[in-house]
């Protein structure tokens, strides 16, 4: 069952990567690099390229939901890093961007760290098919704190927020969404016959709020950064949050895990995170934007 879930997660990564690239190009063409308002996001509903991206991402999401319901979060979540390679290749061809050496090294670090983490996690985790109300409530309450903090940052520093902040926000929110979606999926698949009766109303509300705010952050990240950076942030930050909740609240880490394995998992995660940071600094698209910003400042100063 675990390996079937892994296969579904891999397929989901392909659909999510293609969908992300389609949406990113549509948002950038529409916004011109400016922040995307809620009305701007609504206008995207009439954009065929953006809608195609949403359809592809929808298919990927369905596959990922199945994977989340069939295997531990610590196994499924990091597999999305495969989407990074696909997005980078597709976007470079679409935008005519030549990938530089630091970007290749950064992507390699992201993929190596994520794959290493998956291989270690398969043998270090136990599948949890029962999530009690206390665990659900603890996750939702923690999400409320995160949402309040993020909204405060978005309101206070709205004009000074860059793509990386939006990526961080989206990654954290979708990490919670992954946990809660797994909770819902397990409830729906419970053989007790209650179906929707197994799902608490506050879990559904939490998924909706986190999903909408996370989508807002992603669309703004598209407008100010390359799609592969967005995917890189999501495929590292998202699973790290999901894993932290899975281990800390859902109890998915085996009690007999050897310290060397645990340390290796931490090391693999750090390698992936360093890759994301390097990508945010050395990606050709990021460097081009920085150069254009310097030229505008020089022109205005003259």
Describe this structure in words.
The protein is mainly alpha-helical and 302 residues long. The protein has one domain. The chain contains twelve helices and no strands. The model has no long low-confidence stretch (mean pLDDT 80). The relative contact order is 0.16.
Profile the largest sheet: none
Question: What structural category arises from helix and sheet content?
Answer: mainly alpha
- Oligomeric form: single chain
Distance between the termini: 65 Å
Helix content percent band = over 70%
Number of helices: 12
Mean pLDDT: 80
Rounded Rg: 19 Å
Number of domains: 1
Write the H/E string, N to C. Answer: HHHHHHHHHHHH
User: How many β strands by DSSP?
Assistant: 0
Shape: globular
Q: What fraction strand?
A: under 5%
Low-confidence runs: none
């Amino acid at each position: 069952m675990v390996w079937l879930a892994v296969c579904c997660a891999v397929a989901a990564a392909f659909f999510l990567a293609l969908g992300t690239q389609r949406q990113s190009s549509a948002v950038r063409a529409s916004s011109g690099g400016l922040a995307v308002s809620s009305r701007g996001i609504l206008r995207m509903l009439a954009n065929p390229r953006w809608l195609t991206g949403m359809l592809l991402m929808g298919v990927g999401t369905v596959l990922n939901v199945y994977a989340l319901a069939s295997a531990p979060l610590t196994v499924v979540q990091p597999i999305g890093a495969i989407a990074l390679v696909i997005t980078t290749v597709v976007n470079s061809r679409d935008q005519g961007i030549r990938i530089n050496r630091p970007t290749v090294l950064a992507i390699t670090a992201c993929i190596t760290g994520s794959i290493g983490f998956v291989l270690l996690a398969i043998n270090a985790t136990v599948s949890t098919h029962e999530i009690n109300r206390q665990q659900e409530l603890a996750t939702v309450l923690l999400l409320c704190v995160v949402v309040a903090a993020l909204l405060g940052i978005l309101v206070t520093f709205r004009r000074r927020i860059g793509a990386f902040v939006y990526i961080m926000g989206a990654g954290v929110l979708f990490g919670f969404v992954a946990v809660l979606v797994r909770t819902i999926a397990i409830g729906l698949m419970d053989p007790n016959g209650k179906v929707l009766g197994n799902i608490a109303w506050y879990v559904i509300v939490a998924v909706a709020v986190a999903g909408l705010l996370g989508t807002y952050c992603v669309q703004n990240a598209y407008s100010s950064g390359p799609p592969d950076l967005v995917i890189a942030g999501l495929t590292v930050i998202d699973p790290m949050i999901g894993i932290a909740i899975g281990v800390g609240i859902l109890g998915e880490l085996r009690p007999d895990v050897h310290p060397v394995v645990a340390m290796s998992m931490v090391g693999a995660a750090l390698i992936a995170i360093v890759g994301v940071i390097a990508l945010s600094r050395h990606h050709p698209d990021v460097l081009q934007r920085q150069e254009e910003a310097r030229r505008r400042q020089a022109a205005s100063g003259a």
